[in-house]
Specification:
The protein is an alpha+beta fold. The chain contains two helices and three strands, in the order αβαββ. The chain has one domain. Strands 1-3-2 form a three-stranded antiparallel beta sheet. β2 and β3 form a beta hairpin.
């Protein structure tokens, strides 16, 4: 399932954006700066997922 989520986030990202899921954010929260985005519903996942845009 993580590969599916990554593919879906890649599909909704605008050019130059890096989007990550909440699970990835939890693992990297002390190392990166992010902007929380509204939850999104993606194909293959029943519940909306939390999405974060990495600030570069």
């Amino acid at each position: 399932m993580p590969v599916n989520i990554a593919a879906r986030l890649q599909g909704i990202a605008n050019g130059g954006e890096i989007l990550i899921s909440h699970k990835t954010f939890q693992k990297l929260s002390d190392k990166i700066d992010v902007e929380a985005l509204p939850p999104v519903t993606v194909k293959g996942i029943n519940e909306p997922i939390s999405v974060y845009k990495v600030k570069v």
